[in-house]
């Protein structure tokens, strides 16, 4: 009898242990997202109580994770619709050009501020960007255009739940997702990135005779960002019905940005100051990168794929953080934000310093379009450095000039993603620091005026690019880029062929 009782207890303990293990596995699975390239992006439920405490309760809905829609791998999420279904859905949405909430907030006017947001798969960051936009004054007078290069039902549901202004979705139709085994995605016959020219020719792989300036061959996940940015701008200025006569400002944001509540107010101040003090300023800029975090570098970001390079960067960053821990995100970092006499700066535009919260209108876009061949042919997979090359080589014109907020109104919160890999990636860490910074600066928001200072820029501003970062040597990328501005049947083979 004791033996039977002992066996029964043992069975119960084993069953309970297995159940606990199953629960732990399921929780781990529900919290993680792996993108199609195998990169762990972040935890979906990565919103701490500290962050939520600074978000108005009525906006918590944008941070709510619906677990019933989550699977472990985003490839599985994509397979809920096959590639043909996704292509047809993209075609349908792009042709419809639906503007959500137009019945509530009125039609798009020619001077409506358009906020173009480039979206990939970083859902947590996108949620917080939307929360920050929802708190901005006069956001109800804008049009948010979300431009996606990845079709995902949960992202779509989040975007369409926005109820504080007009919203439109556009879908980049030449994505890796919709072309998984062919260009512009990864063709099985593409040359390996690091193969030598002589070996590539022997292999007879695609584009064997045209490596980039560093001797490397294309990587689709890097070329896609430049393609997407170029397509998005062309789509907004040249192809949408609601913007056919638009002459107002277009603000360029990304999914991992965060805006201050007075960013639209500051945008108007920048515009009026430019009209008065710098009529030749073509670009406005609302953001800047943090002085104590090296989010954006001039070098080839693809070098971070090297393990030794990652270790070196991590070691340097950790040392920098230890030394600067007491200075991060405080008055010393952003003295211009905490000032009753806030300043704006007029200076030559530089890609790595003035590409966040960048603003321009149709007139500037037409100037860019005049040199589209330079943009598309320049061997650099970064859209901003390609624009810098264009700016530095404009015939009979000076380089682009920018007028920017010395106290930024757009922040970069994306520590996790394609160029920023961290072993412990927690979105809440940076987001909470931005929230606290803006909370401390609240009394200095909405300045009635700003004073402009003119700067020639440092050596970095004035140094002419001698060569790009590479990654754009493939003739197919250059042709696709050029053809995006042309409405012809040739492009349809990339879009709708199932």
UniProtKB/TrEMBL annotation:
> What GO annotations for molecular function exist for this entry?
alpha-1,6-mannosylglycoprotein 2-beta-N-acetylglucosaminyltransferase activity; metal ion binding
| Gene3D superfamilies linked | Spore Coat Polysaccharide Biosynthesis Protein SpsA, Chain A
Binding locations of substrate: 118-122, 149, 224-228, 322
For Mn(2+), which residues are the binding ones?
A: 256, 412
What membrane topology does the UniProt entry give? Single-pass type II membrane protein
Q: In which pathway does it act?
A: Protein modification; protein glycosylation
Cofactor(s) recorded for this entry are:
Mn(2+)
Q: Which domain of life is it from?
A: Eukaryota
Q: What is its main location?
A: Golgi
Got a GO cellular component term for this one? Golgi stack
Q: Please give the catalytic activity noted in the UniProt record.
A: an N(4)-{beta-D-GlcNAc-(1->2)-alpha-D-Man-(1->3)-[alpha-D-Man-(1->6)]-beta-D-Man-(1->4)-beta-D-GlcNAc-(1->4)-beta-D-GlcNAc}-L-asparaginyl-[protein] + UDP-N-acetyl-alpha-D-glucosamine = N(4)-{beta-D-GlcNAc-(1->2)-alpha-D-Man-(1->3)-[beta-D-GlcNAc-(1->2)-alpha-D-Man-(1->6)]-beta-D-Man-(1->4)-beta-D-GlcNAc-(1->4)-beta-D-GlcNAc}-L-asparaginyl-[protein] + UDP + H(+)
Q: Where in the cell is it found?
A: Golgi apparatus membrane
Known EC number: 2.4.1.143
Q: Which SUPFAM superfamilies match?
A: Nucleotide-diphospho-sugar transferases
Q: Which cysteines are joined by disulfide bonds?
A: 191-205, 278-281, 376-481, 416-425
Gene Ontology biological process: oligosaccharide biosynthetic process; protein N-linked glycosylation
Which UniProt keywords are given for this protein, alphabetically ordered?
Answer: Disulfide bond, Glycoprotein, Glycosyltransferase, Golgi apparatus, Manganese, Membrane, Metal-binding, Signal-anchor, Transferase, Transmembrane, Transmembrane helix
Family assignment from sequence similarity: Belongs to the glycosyltransferase 16 (GT16) protein family.
Q: What is the protein name stated in its UniProt record?
A: Alpha-1,6-mannosyl-glycoprotein 2-beta-N-acetylglucosaminyltransferase
